[in-house]
Task: structure prediction
Amino acid sequence: MSDLTSHLFTAFALVFVIEGLLYAIFPSHIQQVMKFASNLPKEKFRYYGAAIAALGVMLVWIIQKII
Result:
């Protein structure tokens, strides 16, 4: 397996770890966030999703530049 594939699988697995920990540690808060998200109009939901994805890309770029 190439380094890129290994890094992608590791990153994908870490998403599950982080999300699982959030559900385990803050279950009532996660439920409140889900209720809030379900009441958002689709346009705002897409906007927030795109903004978070852009933030993630920027963080990866910054981390790659630092390391």
User: Anything to note?
Assistant: The helical segments are 3-25, 27-38, 42-66.
